[in-house]
Automatic annotation (TrEMBL):
Belongs to the UPF0702 family. Signal peptide: none annotated. It comes from the Bacteria. Keywords: Cell membrane, Membrane, Transmembrane, Transmembrane helix. The keyword Amino-acid biosynthesis does not apply. This is Uncharacterized membrane protein YcaP (DUF421 family). The chain crosses the membrane at residues 6-26. It is a multi-pass membrane protein. Its main location: membrane. Residues 81-204 form the YetF C-terminal domain. The keyword Transmembrane applies. Residues 6-78 form the YetF-like N-terminal transmembrane domain.
Amino acid sequence: MMIYPTIVLKLFIGLAALVLVTRLLGKKRMSQVTPFDFVYALILGGTVEETIYHMDHTIPQMLFSIAVWGILIYTVEKLTQKFDVLRAPLKGTSQVLIKGGKVSISELERANLELEELRGMLRQKGVFSLKEVNYVFLENSGEISVLKFPDMPVIEEPSVLLVNDGKVHEGNLKEVGKNMEWLTESLNREGIHQIKDIYYAEWSKPEGFFVKKYEHCL
């Protein structure tokens, strides 16, 4: 029956130790947490979990493991602050996904992001068309920072992605009640005769088309 009081004691001590180590390593909002921060927190929590549910792991062993892991992480944090050469591989760097209104295809691929995913992230920032965007930075935390073009008119209706990476998004085309014939004719009027040349084409009823060919991307 001593197993239950031991588990309770380990939980209390483990919680106190984790709070202490977290406070020593510094405060961060969840939006600021990098993949490196996530990994060290995961291992820190796993260390306590292993000790709680394995009776052969003692409290001093748990505290020792937490202390060693905390010291390692603290050392890495200080080294990355002092030496720029270590910051990029350990903490990562921000990426420019859109520069001067041009989407960087190579940076999107490096970030393992699809264009529709980026558009979803932009909508969460209150941006409903790529035509509004001057710069987009993907930060270390995975959040994006957006700089819009100045004096842009208010977008009355969210745009729909009809062409993505040279391919027609048939689901979205059907959603807006249009067909391939309408799309082809509309793009022809825009001076575009080959869909395969288009990286993306947005459309909304009040704004019409906003098209970027591959040659206009980075």
